[in-house]
Amino acid sequence: MNKLQRVDHFERGSYPHKYVAIMKDGKKVRFGHQEYEHYRDSVPRSLGGGQWSHRDHGDSARRKNYRSRHGGVKTKSGTPAYKVKYSPSWFSYHFLW
């Protein structure tokens, strides 16, 4: 669980977000969209995850397409958004896709 060292817990997000990651410093990171399916909800249950597992589709082709599309999204500095740790893109990429 090393990649979650700064996360205190997760809460169910208010519409349109699936989850809110509550960081240990009190900051909140909202991610996921309630109306869309995802590959697998892998937010740890011990930290408040598993609330959206009914939206899992498990289709590896859709996962590959999502990761291909979102892998090209860049920040202002040119870094792929999913590589910026604790960003909404990072949480979605690693815990929903």
Detail the topology: elements first, then pairings.
Blueprint: E1 7-12, E2 17-23, E3 28-33, H1 60-70, H2 88-95
Antiparallel strand pairs: 1-2, 2-3
Description:
There is one protein chain. Strands 1-2-3 form a three-stranded antiparallel β-sheet, covered by helices on one side. The chain has helices at residues 60-70, 88-95, and strands at residues 7-12, 17-23, 28-33. By secondary structure, it is of the alpha+beta class.
Question: What is the string of SSEs from the N terminus onward?
Answer: EEEHH
How many strands? 3
Count of separate structural domains:
1
Low-confidence stretches: none
* Span of the ends, CA to CA: 17 Å
Report the sheet with the most strands, covering strand number, pairing sense and barrel closure.
Answer: 3 strands, antiparallel
Strand fraction equals 15-25%
Q: Going across the major beta sheet, what is the strand order?
A: 1-2-3
SS-based structural class? alpha+beta
Helix fraction by DSSP (H/I, runs of at least 4)? 10-25%
Inertia-based shape: globular
- Gyration radius from CA atoms, angstroms: 13 Å
Output the number of helix runs: 2
Mean pLDDT: 95
What would you say about this model in short?
With 97 residues, the protein is α+β, with helices and mostly antiparallel strands.
Features:
single chain; 97 residues; alpha+beta; three-stranded antiparallel sheet; 2 helices; 3 strands; 20% helix; 20% strand; globular
